[in-house]
Prior knowledge:
The chain is an alpha/beta fold. It is built from nine helices and eleven strands. Strands 3, 4, 5, 6, 7, 8, 9, 10 and 11 form a nine-stranded mixed beta sheet that branches. Strands 1-2 form a two-stranded antiparallel ribbon.
Amino acid sequence: xxxxxxVARTRNFTRAAEECNVSQPSLTRxxxxxxxxxxGPLFRREHSLSHxxxxxxxxxxxxxxxxxxxxxxxxxxxGVRKGSLAPLSIGVTASFAADHLVDLLERLNLSLDGLExxxxxAAHAHLVRDMMHGDFDVAILEEAADLPERLRxxxxxRERYQVLCRTDHPFAQLNAIEPALLSGEIWIDRSGCxxxxxxxxxxxxxxxxxVFRHRAGSEAHLQRxxxxxLGCALSPENVPVEDGLTLRPVxxxxxxxxxxxxxxxxxxxxxxxxxxxxxARARAWPVTEQQG
Length: 292
């Protein structure tokens, strides 16, 4: 690909060979091999100049992109080998507020030279699956009975779920909501969230019947839908809410979660992963007060 791009740029096999620091026959044989793989000639020669064929013009942007990606991968690998780059991929459960991570990531960036961060959110089941497949170095997720045995985890904090409503909703005027008041209320479920089936079960046990009508795939979408007046929803008590929204606890409805940071046992822990784990475990996370 490098020889092809050099000829395409210089339009001359001799100059391209000099630029690539190889003999012209070697360069010519390499391009002939590429032509054989692609199924046709890439250049036509006219005296001292060489011009791209139709196939060559079509392939040029693709080979430029492929070559650039290969060079970037090579550079990244060299940076990791020399320790000048510290890649870190973090998966976060969709109901976790990214705002919790801002100061943590800021400190990590200042203390870790060459940090290259990938941050992604996913529903609980997808997050655990992708973590086990190696897509993430570290995950922030909810404690659950079905977590794989190979996951090693540490508790960060525990928090209650509360009712998210608009500030002009009658619930907003209450210090706490009686469960019976939820009956008949239009409800927005959070897709893929562990709290949803637990909430349905608790409502059934208490003979409380919200109208489960809408679904949201992320915290941001959930808040937008509540703001739009589509209904109320459950949200973790420590998640920042937008202007026009508020959170209210529910009497005698014990719905809470434990948030964990996890890695996979037996997988090498990089310097970046180790630094993040130590910072996450040392951070002062929210403390849930006992509900009265």
